[in-house]
Write a structure and sequence with these properties.
There is one protein chain. It is built from 4 helices and 5 strands, in the order αβααββαββ.
Length: 148
Amino acid sequence: MHPSRTRWARSAVPVLGAVLAFGLTAGCALIETVPEGESAEKSTLPSDPNKTRSKKNAAEFRTWVSTHGTDEQKEAATRVQRIIGEWDADTGNAYVSTDINGGPTPVEDGMAAAAAVASAFDDWKDAKQGSVSVYDVFGNALVVNHKF
């Protein structure tokens, strides 16, 4: 190999390593808001035993957010398709299905939209404790166990 190519190859390897390391950590990554020591329960959207109810939950959520949410929450809530789960005044767990990473119009920052949905859900439901997880159009977790 020509000496100038060898020098280029030696200098390119560390740069490539840095780019790969940055690329693996800088992209769209799972936001996990589970307290240390606890494990995330659902990395994929659970099955929906009552699609009529989950769609009604989503419609009620979107309506509430359109009146009470921040601008970011209002935009993100339009992506919510279904809300699966059980909750009451004391506790609950919710699994929010969205069209993030799909749908008719692209989302510029899917992770920010998912975080806004989780935050809006926290504001919407006044349970003393519980968690909400947000999933993309393919059922993959974006936000897992955001505590409320």
